[in-house]
Amino acid sequence: MPELIIYLLKANIVLTLFYLGYYFFLRKLTFYMLNRYYLLAGTLIALMYPLLDISSFLQRQEYLKSTAVLMVNWQELTSEVSPKIDGWDVSVGLFWLTVSFFAVRFFIRLFTLWRIHKQSEPSRYTTYDYRKVLLKINPFSFWKTIYVNPSLHKDADLDDIFKHELVHTQELHTLDVLLVELLTIGFWFNPTTWFMRQAIKENLEFITDRKVLASGVDRKSYQYSLVHIMTSDKHMIIGNHFSMQTLKKRIRMMNKRQSAKINLGKYVLVLPLIIVLALIFTISKAYEETQDISSNLVSKQLSATENNLKDSTKNTIGNSKPLKIAENPKQDTTKSRSVGITKIKVRKDSVDKKEGARIPGIKLGDPLYILDGKPISTLNAVNPNNIERIEVLKDTSAWAVYGPRYGTRAKNGVVLITTKVKHGETKKNADSVTNIHAENEVDIKSEIPKGTKFFVNGVSIKRDDFEQLDPNTIDSMNVVKDAATGKGSIYIVTKKKAK
C-alpha cells in the first residue's frame, strides 16, 4: 500500500474520531471558544498524527532480533523488472486529479475575492472602516477587512452588521476558514471532512453572535437584522459571511441558557480518550504486522525463492548438487531444506518484506561483484555451472568490509561469488581462461562448455586458436548465451597496438 494512502487513512480516522467527539458530546454546549480550540486542535492533530510512525519503530525492534536467509535467482540478478501499474497507482492518480480540481476551485474563489477588493473603495460608516462594494452580495470579512454594500441594507441594520464583522476581523477567524478550506482540498473523499468544515464555520458564527450580544446590542433587534438580509445565500468568496444559511440554529443558540460548568469535564474526558483510541489503533496494527513478520517472513521468503529457482534453473543449471538452505543463520546446516539445484547461500543483515524473493538494495549494475576475492564489472563472463555459492551482503555489513577499499560501489550491496575447485586442483589451474583484463584487471575463472563459439574483433575463430591467444593482448571479453539453443558465444576485443 502506498505511503500516501496510509497517511490519508490514519489522518482521516483521527479526524473522524474528533468530529464524533464534538458531535455527540460538545456541539450543544455554549462554551464556543473551547469548541473552537477543540476543533482546531483536532484538525491539526489529524494532519500531524500519521507522521508519528510508531509501527515502524516497533517493527524495527523486532527486525533487529534476528536475520533471515533469502535465495538468489541468478537470472534475477541480471534482469530488469518492468514497471507495473496496479490498482493503488490508479487510486493515487484519481486522488491527485480530484485534489487538483478542488485546488483550482479554491484559487478561483481567491481570485474572485481579489477582483471584489480591486473594484471596491475605502469607506467609513460612523466609527467603522470598510470596503464599499457595488455587487449584490452579503456582507463578509476577510482577514482584517470588512466588505459591505450599504445600499442593500437599512441604516438600523448596518450597525449590527459592522459589529458582527468586526468581531470576525478582531478574532482572526479567517485563519480557521483557510485551514478548513485547505483540509477539504486534501481530504475531499471523507464526508466527515465536510461536516467538520460546517461545524467550524458554524461555531465561529456562535462566537461572533455571543460577543455582539455581550457588547450591549438588543437580542431581538439583532436577530431581526439577520432576517432582514435578503441577498443571495450562495458564496463563492472565501471569508466570514453574514449568512442566513444557519440562521435558525444561530438564533436557537443565542436564546439557549449558558451551559453548566460541570460540563467542562467533557473536554477533559473527550480529548484524551480520542488520543488514546488513535494510539491503540496504531499500536495494535503495528503489533499484528510485527508478529506476522516474525512468524512468517522466513518461510514465505524460502517458499517463494524455492519456486523461482525451480522454474528458472531447469534450462540453465541442470542436474547438480542439492541446494541447502539454512532456516536460521545460527542453526546447524544439517537441519536445512534441499531442492535439486546448485548450492547457493545468501546472507543479508535485514529483510525487507516488500521485496519478496528479490535482493533488497541491489539494482542492476549498482552492486559490487566480487569473484573469488577480486572485483569484476560484469556477470556475463561467469558460467553458472562453475559457481559453488553466492553470498549477498547489504547495508552496513557490505560497507564496513568493502567500503574502505572500493568506495561508493559497496554502498549498494556486495555480491560474493565463489567458483568450484576440482579435486586436486587449485583455483589458479582450475580455470580455462586466465588474466582476462576487465575494468579492474581481474582474472575471470570459468569453464567453457562444448559448443561455445568464439569471435575475435568480430571474426569467428576456432577453439584451438582461442586457447592459443595471449591473455595480455585481450582488452575485453563478453559472453552471450542464446536462450533458444542454450549455447554461448564469447566475443573478444584485442588491445590496439601503439603506433
Automatic annotation (TrEMBL):
Keyword Transmembrane listed: yes
Segments traversing the membrane: 6-25, 37-58, 94-114, 264-283
Record flagged with keyword Transmembrane helix: yes
Stretch list, region Disordered: 310-337
Keyword annotations from UniProtKB, A to Z: Cell outer membrane, Membrane, Transmembrane, Transmembrane beta strand, Transmembrane helix, Transport
Domain Peptidase M56: 154-253
Cited SUPFAM superfamilies: Porins
Membrane topology qualifier: Multi-pass membrane protein
Principal cellular location given in the protein's record: membrane
Pfam family, one: Peptidase_M56
Domain TonB-dependent receptor plug: 346-404
Compartments it resides in: Cell outer membrane
PANTHER family: POSSIBLE SENSOR-TRANSDUCER PROTEIN BLAR (PTHR34978), SLR0241 PROTEIN (PTHR34978:SF3)
Record-stated family: Belongs to the TonB-dependent receptor family.
Protein name as annotated: Peptidase M56 domain-containing protein
Organism: Olivibacter ginsenosidimutans
